[in-house]
Design brief:
The protein is mostly beta strands and about 350 residues long. The chain has one helix at about 1-15, and strands at about 35, 55-65, 65-75, 85-90, 95, 105, 115-125, 125-135, 140-150, 155-160, 165, 175-185, 185-195, 205-215, 220-225, 255-260, 265-275, 280-285, 295, 310-320, 320-330, 335-345. It is globular, with a radius of gyration of 20 Å. A hairpin with a 2-residue loop joins strand 20 and strand 21. The strands form five sheets. Strands 2, 3, 4, 5 and 6 form a five-stranded antiparallel beta sheet that branches. Strands 7, 8, 9, 10 and 11 form a five-stranded antiparallel beta sheet that branches.
Amino acid sequence: MKKIISALFGLVILLGACKKDDIHPCPPAVKEQAWEKYAGNPVFTKSVNSWDDGIILGHSIIKSGNTFRMWYTGGHSIETFSSIGYATSTDGIHWERYGDKPVFEAKPGSWEQSFVGIPHVLQDGNTLRMWYSGGSNSSPDGGKIGYATSQDGIHWDRHPSPVFQSKAGGWYADGIFPGAVIKENGTFKMWFSGAIGSITQATPTSKTSIGYAISPDGIKWTVYDNPLTTESPYHFSDPVVKHGAPGAWDVTSAFSASVIKTQCGYEMWYAGEIYNVSQNLGYATSPDGIKWTKNPQNPVLTTDPWNILLVFPSVILDKNKYRMWYGGFVFDGESLGGAIGYATMPK
């Protein structure tokens, strides 16, 4: 009888911790990633004879009501992408661009006079907040992260100076760009990409990882530092998801994180690379946003016939379905461009 009572008591505790429609609220350590790619991929490609007719690279997608909203980087070529466009969709597949011009462009005479891109947009009440990469070709200092706000996603108010930038001597000394940002209990949390060596053009010696920072206002950021690591390049901060060990699928790079808050922690999808061989998407989980466990089944999403490298996953949990829009590099025999694919997975 005591065993029966104990078992029933344990069941009551378990059910009390779960939602009615979610008996297993926390993802297991090894979570099957049964992504189903849309048969008509890609769902968003470069335009014709417009500002984004050369490349589509780096996007952020949210859902407002019944509308999916996307901000994406575009340009005439991979060397000249310098603006952010806006598009909407009712199904995540068929997208309508906003006009024939970008909604956010590089600003002449400023710290971001040469390029802006790779946005991450967060809906915070009635305010849209965007963090983005920006810089100047005349001052190649590893790139910086800017910040802007908007009420409609089209007209943006910029913060006058960068809010985050690379730091000499550290693990993100040579490159940085924003990743996922969520707001939790009044605190903004960012998982950003940083590199030793080029962050945009990998080399055999470059190493890119994912860091973590918090902010009370989205402007002043404090980067995570493990006090037990005192040797360079981790003497003043540490990545929370490092590039893999020799032989791993992400040995060169772990970057461009998309993060979702769960009932008991966080889920992350990110790009991993073996230099000059492959670049696919992986998955990791964490109880606190700092200590991450990579899925041993990684990579969970690999290249398609229409692309050669995968990058920039943007994942949302929409009711009982995960939706992912992922970037793919496209080589047409003469130039390198990009497009966006779509995949879904049951919760």
